[in-house]
């Protein structure tokens, strides 16, 4: 059953990791997808041309989500090219981990800009189109770290907790127009990046999770499909932990 047929989604940070998984899963569910990347042009173009064979429209855009004008331009281009914006997934994010004692002002600001300001930029950029349609689903990628905090990640945790407050406020502001806004809080998700970590350390993380495994990009993508589709039509302002029970 295709749950997203006829819908257009903008997904930020779709060139690798979780974002790439969301792009692939959305295409499987019949969505037309416009996704962004920061610098991975080659892999983004490859993903777009590969998935375009699936009978839907898929296009990659270089766009810095931390930049207000870039976000405005992106939304305008997608609207022109795809005709509507039904779903926005604010997935792009970075880490610059350090203990508070050592963290620089620049690294604090950078993480807030890319992870949190980007969510403001993109939500504002698609708001007008969704208001006109009187329908829309916005999904923001938070983290268990934004719910619980984490030593060595003050900047990242602040950005991800900020996303939760933003999400709930947008849900309250736009609910009357049937625009829903929810957040996903992934736990430990195994991507190409975590594949480079020491296997023993990763195994000890897996054992500490109730479901005894790390999550996959598909686990997050499936939660996105649910929140993007009409199946979740009465759900807004929520944070869905997709973490194998980590925070339980
Ligand atoms: N992996 C986990 O365990 C985990 C857990 C909880 C939450 N999350 C969150 O889930 C999201 C995806 O994580 P991930 O592990 O898949 O990350 P990732 O593999 O590092 O991929 C990040 C993606 O974001 C893009 N990006 C980075 N800066 C950008 C910018 N300024 N503008 C536009 N795009 C930008 C990257 O593009 P380029 O390829 O061009 O650099 C890439 O496509 C992030 O928000 C992260 O905080 C991840």
Give a brief outline of the structure.
The chain is of the alpha/beta class. It has eight helices and seven strands; from the N terminus they run βαβαβαβαβααβααβ. It binds NADP nicotinamide-adenine-dinucleotide phosphate.
Overall radius of gyration: 17 Å
Sheet with the most strands: spatial strand order: 3-2-1-4-5-6-7
List the helices and strands in order.
EHEHEHEHEHHEHHE
Counted beta strands: 7
* Low-pLDDT stretches: none
- What share of the residues lie within helices? 40-55%
**Amount of beta strand:** 5-15%
The N- to C-terminal Cα distance equals 31 Å
The average pLDDT value, as a whole number, equals 97
Secondary-structure content class = alpha/beta
Major sheet characteristics: 7 strands, parallel
Q: Number of folding domains?
A: 1
Shape: globular
CATH names the topology as Rossmann fold
Domain Ketoreductase: 7-192
Active site: 156 (proton acceptor)
InterPro entries: 3oxo_ACP_reduc (IPR011284), KR_dom (IPR057326), NAD(P)-bd_dom_sf (IPR036291), Sc_DH/Rdtase_CS (IPR020904), SDR (IPR050259), SDR_fam (IPR002347)
GO molecular function: 3-oxoacyl-[acyl-carrier-protein] reductase (NADPH) activity; NAD binding
Give your account of this protein's structure.
InterPro entries: 3oxo_ACP_reduc, KR_dom, NAD(P)-bd_dom_sf, Sc_DH/Rdtase_CS, SDR, SDR_fam. Keywords: Fatty acid biosynthesis, Fatty acid metabolism, Lipid biosynthesis, Lipid metabolism, NADP, Oxidoreductase. It comes from Marixanthomonas ophiurae. Belongs to the short-chain dehydrogenases/reductases (SDR) family. NADP(+) binds at residues 13-16, 91, 156-160, 189. 46% of the residues lie in helices and 15% in strands. The chain has 248 residues and is α/β, with parallel strands linked by helices. It has a single domain (8-241), classed as NAD(P)-binding Rossmann-like Domain (Rossmann fold). A seven-stranded parallel sheet has the order 3-2-1-4-5-6-7, sandwiched between helices. Helix 1 (17-28) links the parallel strand 1 (8-11) and strand 2 (32-37). It has helices spanning 17-28, 41-51, 68-82, 105-133, 144-148, 154-174, 199-207, 217-228; strands at 8-11, 32-37, 58-62, 87-90, 136-141, 179-186, 239-242. Helix 3 (68-82) runs parallel beside helix 4 (105-133) and helix 4 (105-133) runs parallel beside helix 6. The protein is globular and about 45 Å long. It is built from eight helices and seven strands; from the N terminus they run E-H-E-H-E-H-E-H-E-H-H-E-H-H-E. NADP nicotinamide-adenine-dinucleotide phosphate binds at residues 12-19, 36-40, 64-66, 91-94, 114, 141, 143, 186, 188-189, 191, 193.
């Amino acid at each position: 059953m295709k749950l997203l047929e006829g819908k257009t989604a903008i997904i930020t940070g779709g060139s690798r990791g979780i974002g790439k998984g969301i792009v692939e899963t959305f295409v499987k569910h019949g969505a037309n997808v416009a996704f962004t990347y920061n610098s991975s042009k080659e892999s983004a173009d490859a993903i777009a041309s590969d998935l375009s064979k699936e009978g839907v429209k898929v296009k990659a855009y270089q766009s810095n989500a931390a930049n207000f004008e870039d976000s405005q331009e992106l939304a305008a281009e997608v609207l022109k090219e795809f005709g509507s914006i039904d779903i926005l997934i604010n997935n792009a994010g970075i880490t610059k981990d350090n203990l508070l004692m050592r963290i620089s002002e620049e690294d604090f600001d950078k993480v807030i800009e890319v992870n949190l300001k980007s969510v403001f930029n993109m939500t504002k950029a698609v708001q007008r189109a969704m208001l006109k349609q009187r329908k829309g689903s916005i999904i923001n990628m938070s983290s268990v770290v934004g719910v619980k905090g984490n030593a060595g990640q003050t900047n990242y945790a602040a950005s991800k907790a900020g996303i939760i407050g933003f999400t709930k406020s947008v849900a309250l502001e736009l609910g009357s127009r049937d625009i829903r806004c929810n957040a996903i809080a992934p736990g430990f998700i195994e991507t190409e990046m975590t594949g480079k970590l020491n296997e023993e350390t990763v195994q000890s993380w897996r054992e500490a999770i109730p479901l005894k495994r790390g999550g996959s990009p598909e686990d997050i993508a499936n939660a996105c499909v649910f929140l993007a589709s009409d199946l979740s039509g009465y759900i807004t302002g929520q944070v869905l932990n997709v973490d194998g029970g980590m925070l339980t």
